[in-house]
Write a structure and sequence with these properties.
The chain is α/β, with parallel strands linked by helices. The protein is built from six helices and five strands. The chain has one domain (6-135, 146-180): Rossmann fold (3-Layer(aba) Sandwich). The two termini are 28 Å apart.
Length: 188
């Protein structure tokens, strides 16, 4: 089974380097153009099902990619962006954004989603997708933050201070082979 993963197109908050977690921010003009380019890239890919975050920036990206194809879309909370809680809407320079993405430090916050809880949520969703859609070719439309645990699920969690460099860019597409999952057990 192959899974394609893409991140939503650009939003104004991406430009301003604001964390948008659960904030429902729409694509900007560049984000719509990026989604159109990704649509062209994926036009020749065989896709049976799109599984999409319910947040509007991901939904708009999926709808653009799906134009003229009529691929069924399932909205899945398990791949919505990490809850940034008290940091929502803040610039990444206003708090220790790198430490926020440290799996090793596993920091706890007042209302923001802990990184290991976030990983557990995304891992459970990927396992569910694999079980329920074994024979399907899947496109996941999600978020930069979600791309981090997805990569760790398939490639293992690297031993590095912050996992932030693993996030994919707006409308970047990555393909994973579900037959090649590394040992992704992790300590809670």
């Amino acid at each position: 089974m192959k899974i394609l993963v893409t991140r939503h197109g650009q939003t104004d908050w991406n430009l301003d380097k604001k964390v948008q977690g659960k904030a429902d921010i729409e694509l900007n003009e560049k984000g719509r153009q990026q989604a159109e380019e990704t649509k062209k890239l994926l036009d020749y890919k065989d896709i049976d099902l799109i599984i999409c975050s319910p947040l509007i920036r991901a939904r708009q990206t999926a709808e653009i990619i799906n134009k003229e194809r009529n691929i069924p879309i399932i909205f899945e909370d398990g791949i919505s962006e990490r809850n940034f809680g008290e940091f929502e809407g803040h610039s990444t320079s206003e708090f220790d954004f790198e430490a926020f993405w440290s799996y090793q430090k596993n920091l706890k916050y007042e209302t923001a989603e802990n990184i290991r809880d976030f990983f557990e949520r995304v891992y459970s969703c990927i396992k569910k997708i694999q079980l329920e859609h074994k024979s399907k070719k899947i496109l996941i439309v999600s978020h930069g933050g979600v791309s981090i645990p997805i990569q760790c699920y398939f490639d293992g969690i690297p031993n590095q201070e912050t996992l932030l460099p693993l996030a994919i860019g707006n409308c970047q597409v990555i393909e994973y082979d579900t037959e090649k999952v590394k040992d992704n057990d992790y300590e809670r």
